[in-house]
Amino acid sequence: MSESVKYLLGEEGIPRHWYNIAADLPSPPPAVLHPGTGQPIGPDDLAPLFPMALIGQEVSTEREIEIPEPVREVYRQWRPSPLYRARRLEQKLGTPAKIYYKYEGVSPTGSHKPNTAVPQAFYNKEAGVKRLSTETGAGQWGSSLAMAGQIFGLEVLVYMVKVSFQQKPYRKALMETFGARCVASPSEETAAGRAILEKTPDSLGSLGIAISEAVEVAAQNDDTKYALGSVLNHVLLHQTVIGQEAMVQLDMAGDYPDVIVGCTGGGSNFAGIAFPFIGEKLRGGKDVRIVAVEPAACPSLTRGKYAYDFGDTAKTTPLVKMHTLGSSFVPPGFHAGGLRYHGMAPMVSHLADLELLEARAYKQTECFAAGVEFARAETIVPAPEATHAVKGAIDEALRCKEEGVGRTILFNLCGHGHFDMQAYSDYFAGKLVDASYDESELAMALAGLPSVAA
Ligand SMILES: *Cc1c(COP(=O)(O)O)cnc(C)c1O
């Protein structure tokens, strides 16, 4: 291991700190605004929803934030996660490229989500919180927070997007196994849920709606705080253990990536693998191309507007500037439930605006085809979300073949698909369609963006 990367890890090979990209940006991201006053919000505005430790991380510009020992102790169960070279896939593709992937499916719930669920539960427990409310799409976040709540002794209440609740019943069982309560969203339990059901009784739900329900519960109960599985700065921060480990592991292999690929729902696993490398580049290190892959049916980076918007459908959150399809946009019910969010993390959006990354959108059937090709070569079944990163990496490798150039490609395999096998069955039965959103609905959602003085 070379001296330049050695400082990143402690003795057990686990990072000592999270990496905060805010410290290295050429310009800060736009302010978060209060929806009532239009003025920048302060820490106190967020206090009903989050403990101060997390609010501090949300606005921090310190480069390194120490990981508390109780969190590292939990991380130790599955971290460092393995970095693999996809040799059999390289051979199958006949590419001169080297393909590496960081595998986050080794966590207890099978994805990168526990990397932030564990510290979020830890800081809430420290602050005396009794219960956490949250949303979940495909259920990876809900089950990860349920697990973390169980470890630190917190109750967990999860609003699960209805289409996924129906598609993935075993995720609910997993949440219940870890002691959480899981409710299909929109539900009758909250004003936000009831309002949607009144207008659209057969609503499939969306992450935006489920967030409204979870935020409402936290705002109305003193013993309850809200936890978000993506999008926010502190969530992206916690995921940087992925990229820091990858940097050290690649160094041990004597390599450095030319291209990094990640899938983007709210942007957290992508940030986790990419931000430490983007930081190196911003501090004068090696250049690296960064590719964000999103679903064509929910294309916030490639088709959305970079504008101030609400994070939820009921318009209760602060206004953040992000790539958005409009907070009222309800994406079609495709299988990569974790990628069905109308917005993109403000920090990822800011980096896109600074042209520090490129974005690409793929249809779900071409992603499943890539996922199956990957599984047959590498013997790991990717989560539907992760197939987007696989597809992006395969396309990069095929481009290397065309150009006759051997580049080093790194992608994040953010989760396994063991709870998503119905989606694979549907794919093999030819039942998966490339649902596209309604253009007029998108136009309407974008027209409804809040007006914010420049
Ligand atoms: C939640 C989830 C995603 C999407 O969220 P990001 O914040 O964009 O990472 C992607 N893949 C998996 C496996 C997930 O669980």
Features:
454 residues; alpha/beta; Rossmann fold; six-stranded mixed beta sheet; four-stranded parallel beta sheet; 20 helices; globular; binds pyridoxal-5'-phosphate
Q: Helix content range of the residues, please?
A: 40-55%
Main β sheet profile: 6 strands, mixed
DSSP helical segment count? 20
Within the largest sheet, what's the order of strands?
Answer: 3-4-14-9-10-13
Using the coordinates above, name the CATH class of one domain.
Alpha Beta
What is the rounded distance between the termini?
48 Å
Each distinct ligand:
pyridoxal-5'-phosphate
Compute the number of strand runs.
14
Shape: globular
Unreliably modeled segments: none
- Strand content is 15-25%
Whole-number radius of gyration?
20 Å
What CATH calls the topology of one domain is: Rossmann fold
General description of the model:
By secondary structure, the chain is α/β, with parallel strands linked by helices. It has a domain at 72-110 and 234-437: Rossmann fold (3-Layer(aba) Sandwich), CATH 3.40.50.1100. Helices cover 42% and strands 16% of the residues. It has 20 helices and 14 strands. Strands 3-4-14-9-10-13 form a six-stranded mixed β-sheet, sandwiched between helices. Strands 7-6-5-8 form a four-stranded parallel β-sheet, with helices on both faces. Strand 11 (305-310) and strand 12 (319-324) form a beta hairpin. It is globular, with a radius of gyration of 20 Å. The mean pLDDT is 95. Pyridoxal-5'-phosphate binds next to helix 7, helix 14 and helix 18.
